[in-house]
Structures are given as structure tokens and as C-alpha cells.
Design goal:
This protein is elongated. It has 23 helices and 13 strands. A hairpin with a 3-residue loop joins strand 5 and strand 6. The protein starts with a helix and ends in an 8-residue tail after the last helix. Helices cover 46% and strands 10% of the residues. By secondary structure, the chain is mostly helical. Mean pLDDT is 83; it is low at 1-58. The strands form 5 sheets. It has a 3-stranded parallel sheet. The protein binds one RNA strand of 77 nucleotides through helix 2, helix 3, helix 4, helix 9 and helix 10.
Length: 554
RNA sequence: GGGCUCGUAGCUCAGGUAGGUAGAGCGUCUGGCUUUUAACCAGAUGGUCGUGGGUUCAAGUCCCACCGAGCCCGCCA
């Protein structure tokens, strides 16, 4: 970043062709010189030196900044969009996060940008998905915004899936201007582009044929009227157009509707939208990117029909779930909502931030996810990755520790007590802090429930139900004494365990096992020192003493 | 059949529009802290850059061919 600014802030001077030789990049103060000269010099040694200098600009730059740099000098509208035909999963989410990152990068570079999200709620329901009841069969072909909500509580089908998604956007600190396509159409924003499309039917058909190599069917129209009788978009055929669209429908009816009663087919809708919203940057999945795919046809329609330069494409790869492509309809998916139940939002952002859009991501909610969390928490707070991932108001408590905490605490109050004892201060009068902590705790609790391997799960037992041998009792007794004597911090406790074991000639591992058995009834558990100080001190003392009861007393 | 994207250390990835001595994190190993337990510190280890050609004084980087993975070309976003 810094190097880049230096590079670009340097004006080209009049003696640009004077060789400027330096041994190290730091010594060079005018990279423009080096750039020019490396191209014209024929002396290999000189070239080497010059190029070495130029190399400096190849220092790590985040992909979002690189895109922003490429786009510099113009006002931008970044358009994202997802069809709310089912639960929106994290694969879909890549589109919006990618857009947001570019948006932030442009802003950070001092540019002007707007982020837009378009909910394609006018798209027809393609089929009755497995998660829908039989009664939905009759809605196939109707716009999503005209179909009743599955839970009966939202305005319509589209809103049902949109609501949790929009809420997730908030959590992810993504704030696009939100459009719903039914509003864009019915409010007349698309009037113009629809008219042009219908009038250009022949030319559009030709473009589609030329780019995708497919003949469009007889009587094809870029506009799908919505049949006022059966409410469907997919069953109508356009017969004629003057001011109104004349159509016939498979339901047997025919008639005329206005151009606000319907929708452009996807391949035309896309470029039309670019024109209407002045879109200049468009992230999209690789499915649209192939030759003859919808970006190709869209770009031509945009130029040739709408006279609009198509937006800068940003192609992103799919996110797979343990190797399988995500698909809500096949049940192979993790919804954004679900993921945010399990990890804080910055982790989801980081997952997208850390790799270039064209890189494929395989998602595994179990251990890999935890590694992702660790990696993020270890990240240098000043790094660009951290900056781009970071979401305001995040509790600064390691997730792994929280996993221990929530398994000790029985309720919200105890969470704060446990945190306090283990050295994390939370100002409980600060509502936002409290909220942040509870939200992280809820993530951890959910993660344990859903994905934790057995080894990481534990429960503090109500009573000791294990008997110990003499050595073990001795070790535990001495620990109890230490706890009684004074308060210790986690490290001290941890050290004491080793010391006590050594004092009585016991293998430390045996003492650790005994401790875990006393409290958890298992031979292993979270790091002992940190675990023990998380518990109430009196309880620890009492429990250690209880371990003395049993066969040696009788 | 046509096309798009990806292939760099054991793993995850930088090295994107500028050819110039192959990088980071994690892991692994070693050493240290009277210390294997879900810890910390220090150091070390690690790659014929998918393969084969070509251009060049110089190629992970540019060109061609091939291999492997995924996807698109069914108007369906």
C-alpha cells in the first residue's frame, strides 16, 4: 500500500530517461525512472538493478486494493444480487462480501463508490424444492414475491428468505442500498429498458445466438408478461407489442398487459439493470463467466442495445461444503444465518478476505473452522486482512477460551463471573460490551453443540464418583492446600501442578488425569491451570477435598 | 465438441495489467522455561512453482501443447 502511494505520487520528471541505478530498492526514490529505463536499457546488469527496484511494487497487496487501484479515478456503483428462492447460503454470500470488500477498498483509497444489493424477488419459482410442501407445486412459475410465505408470518415467499439474510448483512457490517426487483419494475424504473428490449427482440435474439450458439425458440421475447389470470411468468408467450403487451398463456387465457406486469428474461434483465442503476462493478459466480455465458451476452446487449459500457467483471469461485458444491435444494449448504450462529461475523468475512475471489474455498464447519478462527485471532491487528475483516463491537476474547467458558457457566451471569476469574475484564455497565460478549458466548455454545469433537466437550460433574490411589489423593490434597493459602492466577496454578507432582514423585501427567477426573470424570480436559481458575475458588477447594473421601477413610 | 477458472512447502495461501536470487502463516523437528496435556519463547526444516516445449542474457510470471480438478455453453438467477 505504502509503496504504491509512493509510486504513484511521483510525477514523471523531464529527465525520465536518465538511468538511475541503485543496489537496493530503498535507495531508489523514483520508480518511474526505473520503469522507463528497464524497458530501454540493453545492459543486462543495469537492467537487473532497475528491475530489482521495480519489484518493490510487487510487495503484498490485497486483492481488493488491487481491484480498487485498477478502478481508480471514477465514481463506482458495485452491484450484487441474490435470488431469495431458498435459504441463502455462504456460497451466495461470497458475492456480497466480495462486493463490500471492493467497496471498502475504493473508499479507503479515497474513491467514490456505492454498494447495491438487488433482491431478485420477481424471479419465478423454478420448481417445488424439497423443503417445500406439496401445496407449493401450484406456485411454480409465479414470481417469488407473489407466493405465500412458508412460515405464514412474512409478507411473501421472497421476504421469508430475505429477512434473515438482511439481518446477517447488518451483523457483517455490510450496508448496501437495497432494491427489490418487483419495486424497480412496478415503479417504472425499467419502463425504458423494457421497451427498448422488446423493440430490439430480433437483434437480441441474434446476439444470444451468436454468443451462446443457441437458437432462441420460435416466438421468443425478452419480456415475460405475467398472466393476470394464473399469475405465472413462465407460461406466457408474447404475441404482439404496441403500448401494451399482447400475450397468450398456457392456462388458456390471453389478453394484454402493461410493461410493468412482467419481467425481462435473465440474460436481458442483467444488462438492463446495469444501465438503469449505472452499475460499473459486477461480482458474479463463475457460472456466468464462461464464453457464451450470461456476462458475455450481457456485455454485448449492454453495448449494442443499451449503448452502455458493461461493468468491470469480478469473477468468484464457489464455496464447497467438505468438497461438495453447496445447494440449498439438495440440502448441502450452510446458511449465512447458521454460520453466524456458530462464529462471529468477522470470521465469515475473513474467510472471503483471505483468498482471491477466483480461488475455490472448501468449507468445513468442524476443525477447519476453528483453525480459521485461530488464524484470524493471531492476525496482526494492523494488517490489511484484519482491517478488511474486522467488524465493530466484537468481544476481544479468544474463541477457544470461550468454548471452555460456556461449558463451565450455567447461565449468562456465570459467563461474566467465569471470564472475570480467568482474567478477562468486562465492563458490565457497558451494554454494548455485554452484548458483544454474550453474542460470542452464544456462538461458542452453538459451535460446541453442533460441531465440537467429543474430545473438546466436557461437563463439570455434580459430585466425585471416582476413587483415587494414595499418590493421587496426596497430590490433590496438596493442591487444595495451595488453593486455600492464596489466590493464584492461571499460570501459577499450572506451574503448581507440575511442582506438586514432582515433590511427591509422581508423573505430572498422572496428576493432570486425577484433576480432570475429579472435576469432569474424564482423563483429559481443557488446559488445567486456566480451567481451574475459571471455576469458583471455594468450589475447587471443596471438590479437591472431596476427593480425599473414599477408600482411605474406611 | 467449444470455453472459463484453478494447480506454488506436509496444509492454507501470497507472488494478479509491469519477467530479475521462490515468500508468509500453520504444521513438523530441535532447544529453553523444575513443565506433553487446548501454553509461551528461540531456532531449524521445508518447493525440479501440474508436465513438456518455445521466446529471452533472464520465465512461477509471457506464448503453445498436454495432464488433473471444478464449472459454463439447457434463457434458469
Amino acid at each position: 500500500m505504502l509503496f504504491n502511494r509512493l509510486f504513484f505520487d511521483h510525477p514523471l520528471t523531464s529527465n525520465a530517461f536518465t538511468p538511475l541505478l541503485t543496489d537496493t530498492a530503498e535507495e531508489c526514490n523514483d520508480h518511474q525512472h526505473c520503469q522507463q529505463n528497464s524497458q530501454f536499457s540493453h545492459d543486462p546488469i543495469e537492467k537487473t538493478k532497475l528491475n530489482k527496484c521495480m519489484r518493490i511494487k510487487n510487495e503484498r497487496m490485497h486483492w481488493a486494493d488491487a481491484i480498487a487501484q485498477e478502478l481508480a479515478g471514477k465514481k463506482h456503483v458495485i452491484a450484487t444480487g441474490i435470488t431469495p428462492s431458498g435459504p441463502i447460503h455462504i456460497g451466495n454470500m461470497r458475492e456480497v462480501i466480495t462486493g463490500d470488500l471492493i467497496y471498502r477498498a475504493i473508499k479507503d483509497a479515497g474513491g467514490d463508490a456505492t454498494l447495491v444489493y438487488i433482491a431478485d424477488n420477481l424471479d419465478p419459482l423454478r420448481k417445488r424444492y424439497p423443503f417445500l410442501g406439496k401445496e407449493y407445486e401450484k406456485y411454480v412459475g409465479m414470481p417469488l414475491c407473489d407466493i405465500p410465505c412458508p412460515c405464514g408470518e412474512c409478507e411473501n415467499y421472497a421476504e421469508h428468505f430475505l429477512k434473515p439474510f438482511l439481518k446477517s448483512l447488518e451483523k457483517l457490517d455490510i450496508h448496501p442500498i437495497i432494491y427489490r426487483s418487483d419495486e424497480l419494475y412496478t415503479h417504472g424504473k425499467f419502463d425504458e429498458v423494457i421497451k427498448i428490449a422488446i423493440q430490439s427482440t430480433e437483434r437480441i435474439a441474434k446476439i444470444l445466438k451468436e454468443t451462446s450458439g443457441r437458437d432462441v425458440p420460435e416466438g421468443w421475447s425478452p419480456f415475460m408478461p405475467k398472466c393476470p389470470f394464473c399469475g405465472k411468468l413462465t407460461t406466457t408467450r408474447v404475441l404482439d407489442f404496441s403500448d401494451m403487451v399482447e400475450f397468450e398463456c398456457e392456462c388458456g387465457e390471453e389478453g394484454k398487459v402493461g410493461i410493468r406486469e412482467g419481467k425481462l428474461v435473465w440474460r436481458v434483465d442483467w444488462p438492463a439493470r446495469w444501465k438503469v442503476l449505472n452499475v460499473t462493478v459486477e461480482p458474479f459466480g463463475k457460472d456466468h463467466a464462461a464464453a457464451g455465458g450470461s456476462y458475455d451476452t450481457g456485455a454485448r446487449i449492454s453495448r449494442e442495445i443499451y449503448g452502455y459500457e458493461p461493468p468491470h467483471p469480478v469473477v468468484y469461485e464457489w464455496i464447497t461444503l467438505k468438497g461438495k458444491p453447496m445447494s440449498s435444494s439438495k440440502g448441502v449448504s450452510v446458511t449465512v444465518e447458521d454460520m453466524l450462529k456458530v462464529v462471529p461475523p468477522d470470521i465469515l468475512r475473513y474467510m472471503i478476505v483471505r483468498v482471491k475471489p477466483e480461488k475455490h474455498i472448501d468449507f468445513d464447519p468442524q476443525i477447519t473452522l476453528l483453525q480459521l478462527v485461530d488464524e484470524f485471532e493471531e492476525l496482526d491487528r494492523g494488517s490489511r486482512e484484519y482491517e478488511l475483516s474486522h467488524v465493530e463491537l466484537q468481544a476481544d476474547i479468544p474463541f477457544r477460551h470461550m468454548i471452555t467458558v460456556v461449558q463451565i457457566a450455567k447461565n449468562d451471569d456465570q459467563i461474566f463471573e467465569v471470564l472475570e476469574r480467568s482474567g478477562y475484564k468486562v465492563d458490565r455497565s457497558d451494554k454494548r460490551q455485554v452484548e458483544a460478549v454474550l453474542s460470542l458466548a452464544s456462538n461458542a455454545r452453538e459451535w460446541v453443540k453442533m460441531y465440537a469433537p467429543e474430545r473438546m466437550k466436557f461437563e463439570v460433574k455434580e459430585r466425585v464418583d471416582v476413587k483415587f490411589d494414595e499418590k493421587e489423593r496426596e497430590g490433590l490434597r496438596r493442591l487444595a492446600e495451595l488453593f486455600e493459602k492464596r489466590e493464584m492466577d492461571a499460570k501459577e496454578v499450572h506451574d503448581s501442578i507440575y511442582r506438586v507432582a514432582n515433590e511427591i514423585g509422581m508423573k505430572p501427567s498422572k496428576l493432570f488425569e486425577a484433576i480432570y477426573k475429579v472435576f469432569l470424570g474424564k482423563k483429559y480436559g481443557p488446559r488445567a491451570g486456566w480451567f481451574l481458575v475459571s471455576l469458583p475458588r471455594n468450589f475447587v477447594i471443596q471438590r479437591l477435598k472431596e476427593s480425599q473421601e473414599g477408600n482411605n477413610e474406611s
